[in-house]
Amino acid sequence: MTLLRPGGVAAITVRPYRVRGELVDLPGHVHRLAEEAGLVFVDRIVCLLCGLGEGRLLNRASFFQLHEARKGWARGMPIHAVAHEDLLVFRRSEIPAGSRKLKDLQQEPKGSSAELDPGSALATVHEPE
User: Which candidate in 18, 71, 77, 89 could, as Cys together with 42 as Cys, close a disulfide (CB 3.0–4.6 Å)?
Assistant: First the structure.
């Protein structure tokens, strides 16, 4: 099932996280999977997870981030809490790969019809019988 129209935009917020002290690049994994699904990368925006107070930035790390950082410091690994999320912006291609241009499909002669196959996202043209 197709959930995003051609040219539609998908914005995904995701942040890296730690497992046993090791940083997992979740934004990188999401980026790769989105492109494998046929989405086109548009932009990456860094969103700080902080507040403003007394003229400075205040960290708004979660309990789990602080817990991992404290465990790391206790083991002699200076780990800092992640203080941002990535906003990854993708769009669906306006013209499915391998198909004719949309303008060409819209100018089909009368009696034929063009449609998008939602299962494969490839344009198919049906000629009259």
Answer: 89
